[in-house]
Amino acid sequence: MPEIDIHDRPALLEARRLAYARNDEPIFGPLDFVLHAGEVVLIEGDNGAGKTTLLRVLSGLLEATSGDVLLDGEPLTLAKLSHQVALLGHQPGLKGDLTANENLRFAAGLGGVRAGISPATALAGVGLEGFADVPTRELSAGQKKRVALARVLLAPVGLWLLDEPYANLDLEGIKLVNRLLEMHARRGGAALITSHGAYAFTSGTPRRIPLRGSLREIPPAGAGQPGVPR
Amino acid sequence: MKPGTTLAACSALIGRDLTLVWRRRGDALNPILFALIVVALFPFALGPEPDNLRRIAAGVVFVALLLSGLLALDTLFRGDYEDGSLEQLVLSPHPLALLLACKIAVHWLTTALPLLIVAPLLAEMLNLPHAVLPVLLTALALATPLLSLIGAVCVALTVGMRRSGMLLALLVLPLYVPVLIFGAGACNAAQAGLAFMAPLLWLGAGLVLALVLAPLACAAALKISLS
Questions:
Q1: Which residue from A24, A68, B63, B205 has the fewest beta carbons nearer than 10 Å?
Q2: Domain range spanning residue B100?
Q3: What is the dihedral of CA B99, B105, B110, B114, to 10 degrees?
Q4: ipTM of this complex prediction, to 2 decimal places
Q5: Considering the domain boundaries, does residue B1 fall inside one?
Q6: Total structural domains in chain A?
Q7: What is the pTM (predicted TM-score) of this model?
Q8: Which pLDDT tens digits describe chain B residue by residue (227 residues)?
């Protein structure tokens, strides 16, 4: 790996020949990649390329069929992992009958809170001031996404796994996600995000991992970004 | 960065589930109404002779409570599964079995406890001898948490499937039968003036066993359902 600068630190997350198959049908992989602290990596792939499955494997919800995932240099287990990973899935994980604030307070109770942030400031951080007491059932899909992002923001973890964080968001929301990702990377966190097109990520050029069903490897950093057919 | 304590996580979960039930308190009345209707229909079908009813009273109350518990069982994890909260629960840094035990406890508290409270009324509707009522209530107090715990394991196994209602009933009913036999058996024995402690003790033993093992089985089953 021709990695430099921030990369002399041990990798936060490392996948070696990682593959997942459901009923003998390969979903993705084998895949090798390294994620360092302070890095945002974009997993690209068409619909059905296995992006969501990859994130579920990395979050420990699914067990990889073959290959290893190393977290801080050690094999991944759900028990160790859960202290360090926040997952934003397709379902926002919010209760429609509870208000945004109640949902976040529950998340805070369940997973703990990052120092210096509270449910209220997290909501303000995703541009939802004034929506704290609205039942999330009444929020739009984009607003729900923002509440879910606030939950990720709140979690005291280093690694964010965001599945389609741009889906349902308006332009302002897309910028917001980019801002949050940059801030998270600056404070030494890392994030893996999936997208079926990189158009959304406007700030900087994140490293990309193209995912196309079965095997692909990572292009060396800095090499021409492979265009993904859309 | 401070991960919360397990105690905080449990109380957050209990608080959330209680709030959710309170927001939908109309739905929480369904099991009670169901049990009331079932019990009220028996005298119409069998005729209102008090002696007839007295003979079957304990058994009918037991079956009515068991079935209305079964009716409420599916809601235990369904909502959490559908909106993704269940994933967050599994990914939380706290022991999943403990969190699930809290969920089951809240479920019992909000679906079975109200039934236990109306049980004397149901018994009265069927003319159960007053002397047997304490035995019935004890048996129900031991049996309903046991039913909730056994049911939770089966729900955890089937939550990943659509239209799992029939499968759930098929899985659960054979496991419920022994509980029913011991519970209703204790009441029948008491009614006949025989010793009734043994079946009650069996129920207690089963409850203790389920209290320890069911949350663990539930956690394992949920992880399978989510993958």
A1: A24
A2: 6-226
A3: 180
A4: 0.83
A5: no
A6: 2
A7: 0.86
A8: 455 788 989 999 999 999 999 998 888 889 999 999 999 999 999 888 888 899 899 999 999 999 999 988 988 998 899 888 998 898 888 899 999 999 999 999 999 999 999 999 999 999 899 999 999 999 999 999 999 999 999 999 999 888 888 889 899 999 999 999 999 999 999 999 999 999 999 999 999 999 999 999 999 999 888 88
Give domain status of residue A1, yes or no.
Answer: no
**Chain B residue with Cα closest to A101:** B16
Mutate to test the interface with A, among B2, B20, B91 (most CBs of A within 10 A): B91
Residue A74, strand partner residues: A71
Nearest to A87 among B20, B79, B91 (CB): B91
Q: Which domain holds residue A113?
A: 93-156
A130 shares its domain with A77: no
Contacts of B88 in chain A (CB under 8 A): 87, 93, 107, 110-111
Q: Is residue B28 exposed (0-12), middle (13-18) or buried (19+ Cβ within 10 Å)? A: middle
Q: Are residues A200 and A104 in the same domain?
A: no
CA distance linking residue A84 with residue A155, whole number of Å: 9
Chain-chain contact of A85 with B23 (C-beta, under 8 angstroms): no
Give the domain CATH number at A196. 3.40.50.300
Q: Is the CB of B84 less than 8 angstroms away from the CB of A92?
A: yes
Distance, in angstroms, between B97 CA and closest chain A CA? 13
Is residue A2 included in any domain, yes or no? no
Yes or no, beta carbons of B92 and A82 under 8 Å apart: yes
Length of chain B: 227
Given A108, A130, A156, which residue is the final one in a domain?
A156
Of A61, A82, A105, the CB nearest to B226: A61
- Taking the C-alpha atoms of residue A109 and residue A122, their distance in angstroms, rounded to an integer, is 14
> Strand order of the sheet with strand A13-22?
A25-35, A13-22, A66-71, A74-75
| A183 touching B (Cβ < 8 Å) | no
- The full length of chain A comes to 230
- Which of A:81-140 have CB within 8 Å of B? 81-83, 85, 87, 89-98, 102, 105-115
- Nearest Cα neighbor of B190 from B138, B116, B115 is B138
